[in-house]
User: Fold these one by one.
Assistant:
Number 1:
Amino acid sequence: MNVMIDLCVVPLGVGVSVSPHVAACQRVFQDAGLSHQMHAYGTNVEGEWEAVFAAVRRCHEVLHEMGAPRVSTSMRVGTRTDRDQTMADKISSVEQKLAPAQ
Amino acid sequence: MNVMIDLCVVPLGVGVSVSPHVAACQRVFQDAGLSHQMHAYGTNVEGEWEAVFAAVRRCHEVLHEMGAPRVSTSMRVGTRTDRDQTMADKISSVEQKLAPAQ
Amino acid sequence: MNVMIDLCVVPLGVGVSVSPHVAACQRVFQDAGLSHQMHAYGTNVEGEWEAVFAAVRRCHEVLHEMGAPRVSTSMRVGTRTDRDQTMADKISSVEQKLAPAQ
Amino acid sequence: MNVMIDLCVVPLGVGVSVSPHVAACQRVFQDAGLSHQMHAYGTNVEGEWEAVFAAVRRCHEVLHEMGAPRVSTSMRVGTRTDRDQTMADKISSVEQKLAPAQ
């Protein structure tokens, strides 16, 4: 089963700057060979369910290894059986609706 | 690694009433033997990482089997290495802070 | 317009224990006279849209006043026009579906 | 108080395709003159608290007007008092950490 997620990891107990932790997660997704795209308040990741959630678990482990005693992640998790749809498909589908109005 | 999650499954394409789908997920958590507690806008689940996320995957599968072509779940995922803390611990920790003020 | 939310406030830069901050938010909802119910990974709040979101804003302000330089909240926000439904209604609607199976 | 949010609106009872609804929300943010950026599983919006949440409310109203009897939105809401940080700043802060490793 394919899945698309959007996640935002928040390490607690490491101060205010979390960009090193976010960067570490980007490397986790890259090392896992998963399609991913960072935005200003999270990261989109898509792939096979087990591979995606193994990477999410690895993010938590890496952040704990970096010294965060606590990690709280917020996620959206989307699956569909009607058709395949990539991250690019979802954006272009909305943009087609926007085009006539502009 | 132990994990506590809060999740809210939203099946799309099945109309407005989603309570049968939420009930099906409660049964998934129960069948998995996972500690879980439903509230008005989601469900807390705690346990070992792999068991919890296998149940989340099973929820998506069950909802698709029930006819939902698309499922969008929002989740919080919390892990900590400093100490064990159950769902009941978290609530009582806040209630202790509230008590003196009342 | 009535709204039901579920929110989880996460203060950054204040260490690992966030229960004083969660307790402060409970007082904000209580002072606002809003129906609210804490669970192990968040709080349900329901009421008129403006009153609910004024309280959410007040939570962020209070946490900053308590010393958190950064606050990241995750929320679910639900509205419906087909009928009124309280937090208790939502839970009992699911429990009715669960009953026959037990 | 400035705020950065990431939101994903999910209309229920309108079938599987939600791109017209997502497009309608993009227009709400554009009409409100708010800085916003869509991604594959949500939209980042930043601005003054009241303006941003007035737009979120408007999204719910517009989706109900488009025929959705129920709307469930998931959001992240971030505020900080230590410094100003735009959506572009957040991304470039992570990219600087990634650069040396590549």
Number 2:
Amino acid sequence: MLALGALGHPNENPSVMHSTKQRLIDAGLRMLLEQGYNSLGIQALLEATDTPKGSFYHHFGDKEDFALQVIDAYMVGVHAGLDACLLDGALAPLARIRRFFEMTQESYRQEGYLGCLMGGLGQELSGVSEVFRRKIDWCLSSISERMAKCLAQAQRNGEIPATSNVQEMADLLVDCWEGAALRSRLRRNPTSLNAMLDFYINSVAAGAQTAAGEQPRTLS
Amino acid sequence: MLALGALGHPNENPSVMHSTKQRLIDAGLRMLLEQGYNSLGIQALLEATDTPKGSFYHHFGDKEDFALQVIDAYMVGVHAGLDACLLDGALAPLARIRRFFEMTQESYRQEGYLGCLMGGLGQELSGVSEVFRRKIDWCLSSISERMAKCLAQAQRNGEIPATSNVQEMADLLVDCWEGAALRSRLRRNPTSLNAMLDFYINSVAAGAQTAAGEQPRTLS
């Protein structure tokens, strides 16, 4: 979801991760995002990071283990971004959600619009690997669970209807974002991301306004 | 978008396609949908279809050419499904759009929820192949162009606001569906597809109702 630019050091405590391991994960993240899993060659990774093969196998059991650890590192960055945005009491809940996706979009821009690692690996691998299918579903669910909590706050604030099922609304938000991220990867531009976010926020806000008897903005 | 179950014979005139070529494309479609491009072995395809290697290279230049022809065949099926639904004057325009996605969802169900070939190959290959990136972007655009024409009819019928940009609304619809298709592939169930379609149709319809001063359904 959130991508490289916003990650910084993706492990929770950068000082404790071995610098070689960190370098491999950083480079692997970029390579997986660009090329996907099957096209990623361990030899190319070793050459790109000037790392001996033995060092790689000291830190990672195999390529699958490596990719799973890259996903974990990526998700640490995503969760940090979610916390920074969704727990920001200075903004209304819907504005916090918008802020998170704007930050995500900015990191996509910095990378040249390669989309979301979860969407990429999820599509590539979930037909052939139960390990990746379950892992990536869990990752997306962990994002939507946090979104749901923020949407529940939006509900208490009257920003969205009291009757909305916030977990379903959060799943929908994450799903639609992933589709927009695919299109941004195909087109190498942010048009789909902006359109999806505007539509979603306006639609849920209009639902609350009309539920309260006010005149909503029309959708466009 | 539309998948195997709804395809039947994917070439425009089945009688003229060589039966070996047809058999390779049918099997390749299933294998690409399940495994993706890089995991697909030509040898495995030949064994699955009991085809000699020479026959494959008689019909296809290489693996890339094969996959591109599978995509073409898939898109013939998608366009046939679009025409069958979107040109059906017995239904209101928004109901035609819903019908198309319900048919698509039914074909996903028959396959065991493997999602959309365009989403799968688009994510896997668009970072490493300009050929596939452009091809798949074109495929999605060809779907949204037809959706836009149907949305324009919905606009004339007063089902969606007169101020909506129907091409943008159509792009958004296709993008969000692709995201929901990814989640259906990860979870092997249709929940995300139903939720996305309900949200989209209700949101655009609510926009028209409130623009006309009526009481919309609230979003949930």
